[in-house]
Design brief:
By secondary structure, the chain is an alpha/beta fold. About 30% of the residues lie in helices and about 15% in strands. This is Carboxylic ester hydrolase.
């Protein structure tokens, strides 16, 4: 197997041979980028901080994105931006408001500005529970050598991106509409960067993965992309749709000192408040640590003039109202380590043990889909299923993580994958990632390299270079990086992930087993079938008012 060679300390890189910085002329004006270096030492033409919409500030707060105005002179595309957010992934775990409201920018990377043949385009939608993170965390260095144009971007988050008053005043889903605006911009402009607007693949992790599937379901994104790949997230996950958005909007108004009698006055007042005040108020919705992790997110906006999500995603899938395009969906063995790695502490586990019935609805995101008087009963059923008669501590911690993995991710991934496959003639591929490399994203949460499992988003680090996880420090990790990049690139270019194993897609009948590629190590990739993957029978028995329990009543 050919290894990646990452040049850590180059004396000269090829970019230094160029006396002029790269420039691209758009309808909006001239962009001036800069040079980066790929993992194989090749030049990357980089344009960071390219505006794709007007700054959503002042009267544009809570409104749909507007096309960007032209600029005078040269736009220096060499700065990344971050949308305003309550960011809890700080080294010491403190909550803090970071970023700016003026944040609707994209980062574009290309290996060639003037190729003889236009290249496939990969558009990455970042995760972060629709509440935090930024596009620039996933770099181009691993994939750019495969002759792909790579785009990542920011979209509005939390209340600034997903507030809804359940009417046409603030319908909601502004962050999703930002994503759609990016796809429209790419369709019009990506050829200037050597990209083919007729070969666009959208890829997302976690909330980004849920977003990808939502783009399959929204009429407004038809024709803007041609393949999709959802990592560790789907449209049916319990956290991917927010319940009672008006109630949350009015609570936010109260917290920021705004009137709540007339919605129009409420919205005007919220527009006048500092963005940091609005975002900081999010902490009042999270009773313990940062749970529930999604407070403001997508809504079924049937009250909007042009709804982004015109019906419940479960109904849209059942009625086959989904774009018939290749899709891939994946998950890892320890999905629940987000947010569960924050609990890997005896004191926190003891607190959760003592307050199980009160905290579990927020951790497992069922506080809004069951009657409050049933919470204790449901909490005890979950406890009996996963802990039995044992106490919660470090010895039984992995059972808590399994409960979180099943409830927050896998049970609904199975449901969404089977329905999606049955609704289209295009293939739907799936993989299960169970490789723990030298490092994991859990390290920054537990301040240790102790192996507590394969974490949510660990697989992502073997496709996109990130500062959070080094996947190039061992031969096995470098081999895994090459395999995962090969899977990604094969799907982007051909709509078919490429590995040595004969990888077959999901069946077209929801009653058939789940079929997936099991990734254990660089030398162990196994096609397998499973009767179920997320303990669905148990979770379905609890009667949460979501998905089929809402749509098939």
């Amino acid at each position: 197997m050919r290894y990646f060679v990452y040049l850590l300390f180059p004396v000269f890189i090829k970019a230094l041979q160029y006396s002029d910085l790269p420039k691209v002329t758009l309808r909006q004006g001239v962009l001036e980028g800069f040079y980066k270096q790929s993992v194989e030492g090749n030049i990357i033409y980089a344009f960071e901080g390219v505006p794709y919409a007007e700054p959503p500030v002042g009267h544009l707060r809570f409104k749909d994105p507007q096309p960007p105005k032209p600029w005078q002179g040269i736009w220096k595309a060499n700065t990344m931006f971050t949308c305003m957010q309550l960011y809890h992934y700080t080294p010491q775990g403190q909550d803090m408001v970071t970023g700016d409201e003026d944040c609707l920018y994209m980062n574009i990377y290309t290996p060639d500005l003037n190729p003889t043949e236009k290249m496939d385009v990969l558009v990455y939608i970042h995760g972060g529970a629709f509440m935090f993170n930024k596009g620039g965390n996933q770099g181009p260095e691993f994939i750019i050598d495969k002759k792909i144009v790579y785009v990542n971007f920011n979209y509005r988050l939390g209340p600034l991106g997903f507030l809804s008053t359940e009417d046409d005043l603030v319908p909601g889903n502004m962050g999703l509409k930002d994503q759609q605006m990016v796809l429209k911009w790419i369709k019009m402009n990506i050829h200037h960067f050597g990209g083919n607007p007729d070969s666009v693949t959208i890829v997302g992790n976690s909330a980004g993965g849920a977003s990808v599937q939502l783009h399959f379901l929204t009429p407004g994104s038809a024709g803007l992309f041609h393949k999709g790949y959802s990592q560790s997230g789907c449209a049916l996950n319990g956290w991917a749709l927010v319940e009672n958005p008006l109630e949350k909007a009015l609570k936010l108004a109260n917290l920021t000192g705004c009137p709540t009698d007339e919605v129009e006055e409420t919205v005007d007042c919220l527009r006048s408040r500092p963005g940091k005040q609005i975002v900081a108020a999010v902490k009042n919705f999270q009773p313990w640590l940062y749970n529930p992790f999604t407070v403001f997110g997508p809504v079924v906006d049937i009250w909007a003039p042009s709804p982004f999500i015109p019906d419940h995603p479960y109904t849209l899938l059942k009625e086959k109202k989904v774009q018939d395009l290749p899709w891939m969906i994946s998950y890892v063995s320890g999905e629940g380590l987000y947010p569960g790695s924050d609990f890997y502490d005896e004191e926190k586990l003891e607190y959760l043990e003592d307050n199980w019935n009160d905290l579990l609805p927020y951790i497992l995101h069922y506080m809004d889909v069951i009657e409050s008087e049933n919470r204790e009963h449901i909490g005890q059923k979950i406890r009996a299923q996963y802990l039995g008669n044992e106490s919660l501590n470090k010895e039984t911690y992995n059972r808590l993580i399994q409960a979180m993995t099943d409830r927050l991710f896998i049970a609904d991934i199975e449901k969404a994958g089977k329905l999606h496959s049955a609704a289209t003639s295009s293939p739907v591929y799936s993989y299960f990632f169970n490789y723990r490399g030298a490092h994991s994203k859990t390290e920054m949460r537990i301040n240790s390299n102790e192996n507590i499992g394969v974490s949510h988003t660990d697989d992502n680090a073997y496709m996109f270079k990130t500062n959070l996880v080094d996947t190039m420090s061992t031969e096995a990790d470098r081999n895994m990086t090459e395999i995962m990049v090969q899977i990604l690139v094969g799907f982007v270019k051909n709509g078919r992930p490429e590995v040595s194993t004969d990888w077959k897609p999901l069946y077209k009948n929801v009653d058939e087993p789940w079929r997936q590629l099991r990734i254990e190590s660089p030398g162990k990739l196994i096609l397998e079938e499973k009767d179920e993957i997320g303990n669905n029978a148990f979770w379905d028995s609890l009667g949460f008012q979501e998905n089929e329990n809402v749509c098939e009543m």
